[in-house]
Write a structure and sequence with these properties.
alpha/beta, Rossmann fold, P-loop_NTPase, ATP binding, ATP-binding, ABC_transporter-like_ATP-bd
Length: about 230
Amino acid sequence: MIEVKNVSKTYKMGKEVVTALNNVTVKINDSEFVAIVGPSGSGKSTLMHLVGGLDTPTAGSIYVDGKDISKLKDKDMSKYRNQTIGFVFQSFNLENTQTALENVMMPLIFAGVSVKERKAKAKKALEMVGLGDKIKHKPNEMSGGQRQRVSIARALVNEPQIIFADEPTGNLDSKNGELIMKLLNDLNAKGYTIIMVTHNMEEAKKAKRVITIKDGEIQGGSVNEI
């Protein structure tokens, strides 16, 4: 379970202090599919980055399975990001010079997995997202929907507990967007915890719970409303 307790995040911009999050408290249970929605600058991406270990709060605590990740040392935080969570980005973040298989293998390099096992795990992850026949294709040889599925396979390859999806359909047409949403729901049905950041309310409604955030504060959905 993820528990965000009284978390605030501020940034200094010159002499001005900008509050990205203000005293946020929210719980997300194992195997939930939660959508975090809000306008640009509302703090939704900041919240995801904090829970994902990409940033640390100015105040408050973030517990994942009872451990306060905001107090982890750099080495332990890197391990958390590599083994506990997987990231899916709007812009895919794939290496264009590498094949789908090589892109998916990347997180396994940092995990110290052997080359043989890397290939086997990456191939299995690509098969999970329906791209078993595209392992030798490079991103520029694929559609946007296929590239996002490669990104999802890369997020899955280390068998994480939590998948973070940041505007996962933002660069896709409606048909491919629907396919990605179906894939995320299928993964959730298999037991993965999915946390999706989006400004698209229609897609947000396909999650099991919607958390609305505005001006750095939770507006609704902070308790289980499934």
